[in-house]
Design brief:
Layout: E1 20-27, E2 42-46, E3 51-54, E4 69-71, H1 77-82, E5 85-93, E6 95-98, E7 113-114, E8 122-123, H2 124-130, E9 133-136
Parallel strand pairs: 6-9
Antiparallel strand pairs: 1-5, 2-3, 2-4, 4-5, 7-8
Length: 144
C-alpha cells in the first residue's frame, strides 16, 4: 500500500469498513487562506478545475454549491497558500460519520439549505445523505 494511503486504523471517525473514498485527489490552491484545513472538513468538487475545495458557498452556480465529500487529511495553511495540494484523501460515500466531527466552514451548517438549481431546497445533510455520507449524532458514555 502506498505511503499516502488512508487506512481504517488512522481515521478517527471511521465507523464502517466499506466506506468509499478517493485517494490522490487534489485540493485547489487558496492564496487567501488563513488557517489549516482540518480533517473532517466538508468539501465540494469543482468540475471546471477537477479539484476539491472546502464547501463554503451554497449559492454558487459552478457545482461547488453541493457538499460532495469530507476531507480525510489535515492540510497546512502554508501548503494551501503555496499551491494545489495533491495526494489528498476525500470520503465520498457509504459511511456513517459522527456529526460532531464534521467541520463546516464559512458559517455553514448541516442545516444550510442549497437552493441552486432553483427550488432544490435541500439541506447539506440531505445532500450528503444522497451520496451515502450519513451524519449521525453520537453520545459517549462511561460505566462506573
Amino acid at each position: 500500500m502506498p505511503e499516502n494511503s488512508t487506512t481504517v486504523e488512522n481515521l478517527p471517525f471511521w465507523l464502517g469498513e466499506s466506506a468509499l473514498y478517493k485517494d490522490a485527489e487534489t485540493v485547489a490552491q487558496d492564496a487567501g487562506r488563513t488557517a489549516d484545513m482540518v480533517f473532517g472538513t466538508v468539501m465540494a468538487y469543482d468540475p471546471t478545475n477537477e479539484k476539491w475545495v472546502p464547501w463554503t458557498d451554497e449559492t454558487a452556480t459552478d457545482g461547488t454549491q453541493f457538499p460532495a465529500g469530507i476531507l480525510l487529511d489535515t492540510l497546512a495553511t502554508a501548503d494551501i497558500v503555496a499551491g494545489d495540494v495533491s495526494n489528498v484523501s476525500i470520503l465520498v460515500g457509504n459511511q456513517i460519520v459522527p456529526a460532531g466531527q464534521v467541520v463546516f466552514e464559512n458559517s455553514l451548517t448541516a442545516d444550510t439549505i442549497v437552493n441552486v438549481p432553483a427550488n432544490l431546497n435541500k439541506a447539506a445533510w440531505q445532500l450528503l445523505s444522497a451520496i451515502g455520507i450519513f451524519l449521525e449524532d453520537t453520545i459517549q458514555t462511561s460505566v462506573a
